[in-house]
Amino acid sequence: MRIVAQQVPWVHRQAGAAMPDAAQFFDRIDRPARLPDGVASAIIDAIETRQLQPGDRLPTEMELARRFGVARTVVREAISLLRYDGIVQSRRGVGAFVADPAQKSTFRISPACFEKRKRIVQLLELRTGVQAGASALAAEMRTEAEMRDIRQTLAEVEAADRLGPAAALEQRVDSELLLYRRIAEASGNEYYVEVTRMIETTIQNNLRSAFLKNAANSEFGPQIMAEHHAVVDALIARDAEAARLATRSRFERAAHRLAARQDFL
After folding, report:
1. Considering only CA atoms, which of 185, 198, 182, 71 is closest in space to residue 127?
2. Mean pLDDT, rounded, of the chain
3. Among 3.30.499.10, 1.20.120.530, 3.10.28.10, 3.90.740.10, what is the CATH number of 111-260?
4. Which of 97-106, 113-122, 246-255 reaches the highest mean pLDDT?
5. How far apart are CA 152 and CA 132, in angstroms?
6. Which end of the chain is more exposed for a tag (fewer CB within 10 A), N or C?
7. For 35-103, CATH number?
């Protein structure tokens, strides 16, 4: 049996035949909508159609995730978008509520500023897992010399913290970055060090001004220092699990504080 290849009119042409404009055969491909934007839009629609009233409590993240058929992280980002725009308000330990339009601030975050904030939050989320693992391993592997370096760097963070952001902002940020790099180095795992350096380089090269402004507004004070001390104390005690939990708590809280702010940049 002889198989005859099917000719595609706009591809196969006899010699000398005029070739059509191939572009006419292709239509524009729309970018798929981001899931968090879709969830946020659905909640806004419910508010605008009065299905949700000012003061109403939104369903839990778990319930919204189930209803929309998405991950909880998607819902969490959608709620953050709405909170940044003043459409909902969050109450710690209670949930998210529809804001009163009469009390809604006219303040808006520019897309560029929001993108910087989002990138810093993503870096903090990445650092959470990386630094927690590095700290746990460092608690077991660190030498006395490495522990002295870590304690000395913590003392430098404290000194800058006492001076305050007006006098020692860059010193405070740089010494804190160095503190967790020292901890990664004490883990003895070169991959933890490599990822930590990559994160630090990204901050220094692309997000330093935004990182400094964020630090000036929220990264000073006894609460943050207590978080650093909890990490270092666990390293001193060679308690791997305590070091893991303290480090995870440190970066999760940092990400939460940043996401909860409405005055960033």
Report:
1. 198
2. 80
3. 1.20.120.530
4. 246-255
5. 20
6. N
7. 1.10.10.10
